[in-house]
Write a structure and sequence with these properties.
453 residues, alpha+beta, Beta Polymerase, domain 2, Hydrophobic Seed Protein, 7-stranded mixed β-sheet, 23 helices, 50% helix
Length: 453
């Protein structure tokens, strides 16, 4: 690592602090990411200067966390968080220290951090690395290790448990055995962490290349039972010949196999959440189970979970829809009208994400199936209907607003638009009906169930 690796604004902050006689080092995740060859997103500086001294040295500052020693410096439009070296008191709320103490050394400041890979400092002015806890060695070994006593670190801030899981998934690292063993002692602290903070870490984990790495750790350490106890119910729940794995292992494989963003993957994580509560033995197949209506029950559970995690309404509604609609089974006998009903029922905007979930669901069965074999023709049929057989819009009608006003003697207003929309809907229905009558797919519903799946 060299000073040239540091963002110009962060480098200038360190230079000004050093010129004023203060210690100033780049610290935390940006140093870790540089060592890993990843782009650093946020730049943090630790300094011996007190917050008021930082504010005097720079024209544009924001007292973002001044009680805890943090001032955001705006330099060239880029925000740089500058925090005074500090020691910390107890964490009575399992989130933040009750008080901080300034005037400590850099090494003491690094000792309060969560993991060794985040406790490395780089002085770009002196071109010196400060690594008192062996963080560079752990990066090479791809290990997540707590700084000092892992139980103490986790008790201080219960969210550190979620951070450990997230780093494991995002970086593909293992959690050092003593550090992982300490997670069980911190479950009480984790339970006190706000839902918003847990949600944010969970979504970052779900954005990882292989979320199952962190989710497996969550299950075996008891974290899953704290943050998503409904999913813990699926551990060891057998399914049937359609599936190689139990409900929980199927869920893990499905999430890994789902393309898309973290919200879509959260939908996949919850798509079979109701299976344990809807499981019923198959009399004709001992040892196998059916899961009738697990999609509908799961949508209700997903709603409750989304509210508990304080998801935005649009995100929660998307997840509910994904879970509620994931049980569809396409047949080539579907007519274009049936495809159109399917699109209307699911919603055109949701279809790409629903197909992504279903692709993960197919992968999660564990038999090496290609999802495109199941989804490819339906995708093409949907594209055809959307491109060539779209429902009539108001703009397609042979009459317009002026015609309606002239014929009915009404003034401009909302009522005119309502009449045009109603006319368009009737035209759409009239065009759809002949195709359904006696055509291929007659009587086939667009959501034919396969509730054994």
């Amino acid at each position: 690592m060299t000073p040239a690796d540091v963002a110009p604004a962060a480098l200038e902050v360190c230079r000004r602090l050093a010129a004023a006689g203060h210690g100033a080092q780049i610290v935390g995740g940006c140093v870790r990411d540089l060592y890993l060859g990843r782009a650093a997103k946020d730049w943090d500086v630790a300094t011996s200067a007190h917050p008021d001294e930082v504010q005097r040295l720079f024209k544009k500052t924001i007292p973002t966390g001044i009680a805890h020693g943090t001032v955001t410096v705006l330099l060239g439009g880029e925000p740089i968080e500058v925090t005074t070296y500090r020691g910390e008191g107890a964490y009575s709320d399992a989130r933040r220290p009750d008080h901080v103490v300034f005037g400590v050394t850099l090494e003491e400041d690094l000792a309060r951090r969560d993991f060794t890979m985040n406790a490395i400092a780089f002085d770009p002015v002196a071109n010196q690395v400060i690594d008192p806890f062996g963080g560079r060695d752990d990066l090479v070994a791809r290990v997540i290790r707590a700084v000092g006593d892992p139980e103490a670190r986790f008790r201080e801030d219960g969210l550190r448990v979620m951070r450990a899981l997230r780093f494991a998934a995002v970086l593909g690292f293992a959690i050092e055995p003593a550090t992982e063993a300490a997670i069980a002692s911190a479950l009480g602290s984790l339970a006190r962490v706000s839902a918003e903070r847990v949600r944010d870490e969970l979504l970052k984990l779900l954005g990882a290349p292989k979320p199952s790495v962190g989710l497996e750790i969550a299950e075996r350490t008891g974290v899953l039972g704290v943050i998503l106890p409904e999913l813990a119910e699926g551990v060891g729940v057998a399914q049937n010949h359609h599936h190689r794995f139990d409900v929980w292992r199927h869920t893990l494989a499905s999430v890994d196999g789902t393309p898309g963003d973290a919200i879509v993957r959260l939908g996949t994580l919850l798509h079979d959440v109701a299976k344990p509560r809807t499981a019923a033995p198959k009399p004709e197949a001992p040892g196998e189970f059916t899961f009738y209506r697990h999609d509908a029950v799961g949508a209700e559970m997903a709603d409750a979970i989304g509210r508990r995690l304080k998801l935005a309404n649009k995100e929660r509604e998307k997840i509910i829809a994904l879970v509620g609609h994931h049980m569809f089974w396409y047949s080539p006998e579907w007519s274009d009208a049936t495809v159109r009903r399917f699109i209307r029922r699911v919603g055109a905007d949701l279809l790409p994400d629903l197909f992504a979930l279903r692709a993960g669901d197919v992968v999660g069965r564990g038999f090496g199936e290609d999802p495109e074999n199941e989804l490819g023709e339906l995708r093409r049929r949907v594209d055809k209907v959307v491109a060539e057989d779209q429902a009539l819009s108001i703009g397609d009608l042979a009459i317009g607003g002026q015609d309606v006003m002239a014929a009915l003697g009404v003034p401009p207003g909302r009522a005119v638009g309502d009449m045009l929309r109603a006319r368009g809907a009737r035209a759409e229905h009239a065009r759809a009906t002949p195709r359904e009558a006696g055509g291929a797919g007659e009587g086939v519903t667009p959501m034919t169930r396969c509730d054994d799946g």
